[in-house]
Amino acid sequence: MRNDSRLSRMLHVLIHMDKHQHSATSDMIAKMLNTNPVVVRRTMAGLREQGYVRSEKGHGGGWTLVRPLSDITLLDVYNAIGEPHLFAIGPADDQPQCLVEQAVNVALGDAMKEAQALLLRRLDSVTLDKIAADFEAKLTARPATSYSCAS
User: Which residues, at least 6 apart from 54, have a Cβ–Cβ distance to it below 8 Å?
Assistant: First the structure.
């Protein structure tokens, strides 16, 4: 199963957007993420619907952050991008009548519900300004020429 990196990528984008005074076009963001602008627009739409960004069409338009990073949690972004699956593992359904499979699925289901609840609580406890502060600390500790990010 392929990793779903939308959460990580959107966190990356939002922190960059906070650092820049001008709006970011879908083309600029797509170049930074090495993806297609259509994918960017589709993913950013969820953030717009939740009130974290806005978009302007036409010359000088693009995406703009409208809430401070301190008001946005990892869980907020996770929810805005459609709550992708958190785990690649899951129950089997090859032999639904098999009592062993049923027992395994119950055990896995319970463990995964517990893990998901813990992860969602953790995502809700971290705001984007904390991540941005970590970036700033790392940037300060490095020589200026060692920072590279295409934005």
Answer: 48, 63, 64, 66
How do residues 19-33 score in pLDDT, each as one tens digit? 888 899 999 999 999
Taking the alpha carbons of 118, 123, 124, 126 in that order, is the dihedral positive or negative?
positive
pTM of the model: 0.85
Give me the phi and psi of 143, to 5 degrees please: -65, 145
In the CATH scheme, what is the code of domain 6-146? 1.10.10.10
Detail the DSSP E strand segments found in the chain. 53-56, 62-65
Boundaries of every domain in the chain:
6-146
CA angle 13, 42, 132 (to 5 degrees): 15
What radius of gyration do the chain's Cα atoms show? 19
Instruction: Give CA–CA dist 125/109, Å, rounded.
Output: 24
The pLDDT value given to residue 150: 53
**Cα 119 to Cα 95: distance, rounded to the nearest angstrom:** 30
